[in-house]
Amino acid sequence: MIRRWLPFVVGIGIVVWLAALVMLAMTAEGPQRFGELYLGILLVNVTGVIALLVLIGGRLADFVRDWRRHVPGSRLRGRTLLMFGGLAIAPLLLVFAFSVTFLTRGIDSWFHAEVRQGLTDALGLSRAALDLRMREYLDRTSRMAARLDGLEGSSLYLALDEELRSSGAEELIVTSAGGQSIAYSRAGMLHALPAVPPEELLLQLRQGRPHVSLQPAQGGGYEVLAATPIRSGPGAQGYLLVATYPVPQRLSDLAGTVQQAYQQYGQLSFLREPLKATFVLTLSLVLLMALLAAMYGALYFSERLVRPVQDLIAGTRAVAKGDFDTRLLRPSHDEIGYLVTSFNDMTKKLARAREETERSQAAVEAERAALAVILARLTSGVISLEPDLRVRVANQAAGTILGVDFTDAAGRPLAEIAAGQPLLAELHEVLQRHVEARETEWREQVTLRTETGRREFVCACTALPGDAGAQGLVLVFDEVTQLLQAQRQAAWGEVARRLAHEIRNPLTPIQLSAERMRRKLMRGLGAPEAELLERSTHTIVQQVEAMKQMVAAFSEYAKAPEMHMSEFDLGALIRQVSDLYHAQDPRVAFGLSLDPKAAPLEADPGRIRQLLNNLLTNSLEALDGRENPVIMIETQRVGDQIALTVVDNGPGFQGGLLEQAFDPYVTSKPKGTGLGLAIVRRIVEEHGGQVEVDNAPQGGARVRMTLPAVAREARRAEARREKA
Amino acid sequence: MRGRRWLILLVALSCAAAAFAARAQDAGRFEIRNAYVELVNGSWQLDVRLDLALAQAAQQAFQEGVPLTLSLEVEATVERRLLLDEDVVSMTREWQLAYDAIAERFVVTDRATGAHVSHATLAEALEALSRISGITIADTASLPEGQRFDMRVRATVEIGDLPAAVRMLLFWKSWSRTTEWYAWKVRP
Q1: What chain B residue is nearest to A116 in terms of C-alpha separation?
Q2: What confidence tens digit (pLDDT) does each residue in A665-691 have?
Q3: 3-state DSSP helix/strand/coil % of chain B, to nearest 5
Q4: Could you give phi then psi for residue A244, rounded to 5 degrees?
Q5: Looking at residue B109, what is its pLDDT?
Q6: pLDDT at A325 over 50
Q7: B168 to A31: CB separation less than 8 angstroms, yes or no
Q8: Is this prediction's ipTM beyond 0.90?
């Protein structure tokens, strides 16, 4: 803002200063003008000096501030300032000193003693020459007075005229003692009145002394005034003769010249010291103004000179910080301008290069994002690893399958992440084994043992290509436990269906044949044989009946029943079933922990009842003969899932049974079909839920199930089943 | 100790006052003692009496040969209703007092007419210079008899008859003294 108005202010200042100079010139017209104008002149000059000082002070303050803050370019500006200032100030001071000395000595030389003495001598000479004349004129006047003594009236007038002609006087006046004119005679101008004698002349004559003096003439030059009393005149005082003689023109001119020279010399002599002081003062003022102007100029031009360099430094710093859009204004067409142009070209090229890099990066990022999306959508787990088995990236499925949070895993060793993660730890062991064997391309089905059972994984590993050999590994894995179980389940279903079909058909004829044989042969046999027959046929019938039940169970397992979904209170169902079993075996204590929020469950209540029956039957059979048998049933709402847990304090799953708990015909009971948990699992999966078994920390078997509260998944599962 | 300080301060102030008084005395007395106009034979004539005593510096300069100039500014205005005052008279008259070293006389010259009168002593010359009389400022055509008008005069005495260039060079040095305006109303 200030900088924008500065040229106008400077312009106005120059105009005002010029006006002050004009005013200064006007003071020469007279003292009154000086009195009126000097205040204005003083004010303008003082204001100008103050303004200049303020400008210099402001720029100096800026400079000092920049210097202290180590602003780039301030050192260079300081050196430039010093150079400019030195170059400007030193000659100025030299010229000032020389001028002052020269002027003062020059002025002093005007007033040599010889000049004054010469003038004084010339003055004395002039006076001496005129004194001779004056003395002669006084004598002449005295003689005239003697001749005029006693004359009166017309004779006096005639005698005066005669004396005027003979004496060469210009005017002759006879006056009374009081100065009153009696008679006079004048050459040429008779009509003019006689001049009144000066009072001093009359006074001198009254004292009896003749008077002679040199008088400046009215028209220039000099004239001699001589006066003497006429002794014998009538009256007490007598008459006075006053004669005026002209000084010869040549002598008068010379005397006038001497007088003028003397006067001028005196004037100059009087002005000697003031003149010297004036010159020194004027020179000092000029020096001050020049110094201030030089300082301001040095500050201004150093700033102008350094500014492009400062801009270049600032631009370079901006480029260093990554701002390639910096463009500098070309200050001039010199080398600095060329440098600025080169800088701008450089930043343009850098900006272009950066844009290309950003485009490439964006493309890579897009690729990476697409890859990330693909990886995220993959149901298989993918872990990308560095050659030293540091995790590069892992997809969401990897974390879900392995139960590991890979959010902050990038850059961390896989072994470190695997600590406390049994699945990943085992996977890491497999991977490590292959790495140690320098196998980079391998595929393997891995069985990992966990607390909840055996889990099957299919793993594939490949090396990432790179410029310098392998740049890392990619491990792709998928859990196939459920797939294998489903396959196994399907196989068992088929087996069960065939078994039911192949076995059920001959069972009835066997039973009928046995009964018929008993009925036909019983009557013809003795008691021991009859008893043997009875026992044998009974055994056959009983075993056939058992086999029928087994076949019915297998048939039940094999067939896919129709689901009848409805919303019901799970808690009420649990209470109802547990009460029934409690009534059947009061010795067993039932502990229920039912979440009210888990009350509405959309499922097939008949199938859920069957699920509970199977679980509770299993538990009761496991608790047979145990002291303080307890069965705990717990429900809990977790999000849109309902968790159902059944725990008993029986012996739990023994040995490797846990891993095959859901397989059909796997049982630890002598009479069990091994289909209980298999059916449980099937019911849970039909409802879109999950089930897992383990041993509770305090002992006993624990079965944990999660069922969707709303049967969307169950319907989908049913649809899939129907489709199949 | 404190009293001595006050004493020193008092003495210093007294010295300063004395110096100032001496300087004021040295500056000489210069003012208009009285002035009046009168109608003489159909023209208004001005008489002015001055107190004119040269300062020591001026006397010294005068002895060196530097002439002395006395100028008299005269203004007469007629008051008008609803209009600015009319300047009827605005004139300046100058006299020069110089020492003629050849004649050894003090010469008073009327610069308007060129007429001069010489005096044997400076005192006589100053006395003659301080009695200004019979200056015609206007006639009855411009200032009719019976006209009410305002007069004011002021005098300036300047040492030296310096060339313009020298005067400009010596702008910082005051070479002149000017009296206050002496104003009065002329009412018939």
Answers
A1: B64
A2: 667 666 666 778 888 888 888 888 888
A3: 25, 45, 30
A4: -115, 125
A5: 92
A6: yes
A7: no
A8: no
Q: Which of B66, B157, B171, B173 to mutate to test the interface with A (most CBs of A within 10 A)?
A: B171
How many Cβ atoms are within 10 Å of A230's Cβ, its own excluded?
21
- Interchain CB contact of A624 with B (< 8 Å): no
How many angstroms separate the CA of residue B137 from the nearest CA in chain A?
20
At residue B111, the 3 state secondary structure works out as coil
Please state the separation of Cα A163 from the chain's center in Å.
115
Cβ neighbour number for residue A296 with a 10 Å cutoff = 16
Query: What proportion of chain A, given as a percentage, has pLDDT over 90?
Result: 6
β-pairing, A473-479 vs B30-40, is unpaired
CA atoms within 13 A on the CB side of A643: 12
**Structure token pair of residue A317:** 């710093």
More confident residue, B74 or A527: B74
Which chain B residue has the Cα nearest residue A280?
B169
Q: Which of A24, A27, A267 is opposite residue B160, by nearest beta carbon?
A: A267
Question: Please, are residues A688 and A712 in contact by the beta-carbon 8 Å criterion?
Answer: yes
* CB neighbour class for A57 (10 Å; exposed up to 12, middle 13-18, buried from 19): exposed
Which of B68, B73, B102 is the mutation pick for testing A, counting most A CBs within 10 A? Answer: B102
Which is more confident, A24 or A502? Answer: A502
Helices (runs of H) and strands (runs of E) counted in chain A: 18, 17
Which residues from B are below 8 Å from A126, CB to CB?
102
pLDDT score of B24: 43
Compare A229 and A563 and report the one with higher pLDDT: A229
Summarize pLDDT for A141-167 with one digit per residue, the tens. Answer: 999 888 888 787 788 888 888 888 888
The Cα of A181 is separated from the nearest Cα of chain B by a number of Å equal to 20
- Bridge-based pairing state of the strands A453-463 and A442-450: antiparallel
* Count of CB atoms situated within 10 Å of the CB of A698: 9
For residue A84 the two structure tokens come to 């400019």
Write out the residues of chain B at the interface with chain A, using a CB-CB cutoff of 8 A.
Answer: 60-61, 64-67, 71, 73, 98-105, 107, 114-116, 118-120, 124, 156, 158, 160-162, 164-173, 175-176, 178
The token pair at A273 is 């010291």
User: In chain B, how many H helices and how many E strands?
Assistant: 4, 10
How far is the alpha carbon of A41 from chain B, nearest alpha carbon, in Å? 10
Q: Please report which confidence band the pLDDT of residue B174 belongs to, taking 50, 70 and 90 as the band edges.
A: low
pLDDT at A517 over 60: yes
Q: Verify whether the Cβ–Cβ distance A130 to B102 is below 8 Å.
A: yes
Mean pLDDT of chain A: 81
Lowest mean pLDDT across A216-220, A336-340, A356-360, A470-474: A470-474
pLDDT digits (tens, 9 = 90+) for A445-497: 888 777 666 778 888 888 887 655 557 888 888 888 777 777 777 777 777 77
Instruction: Determine the residue of chain A that is closest to B154 in CA distance.
Output: A32
Record the pTM: 0.48
A39 in B contact zone (CB under 8 Å)? no
Using the Cβ of A204 and the Cβ atoms of chain B, whether some distance falls under 8 Å is answered with no
DSSP assignment of A627-665: SS-EEEEEEEEETTEEEEEEEE-S----GGGGGGTTSTT
Q: Which residue of A has its CA nearest to B101?
A: A259
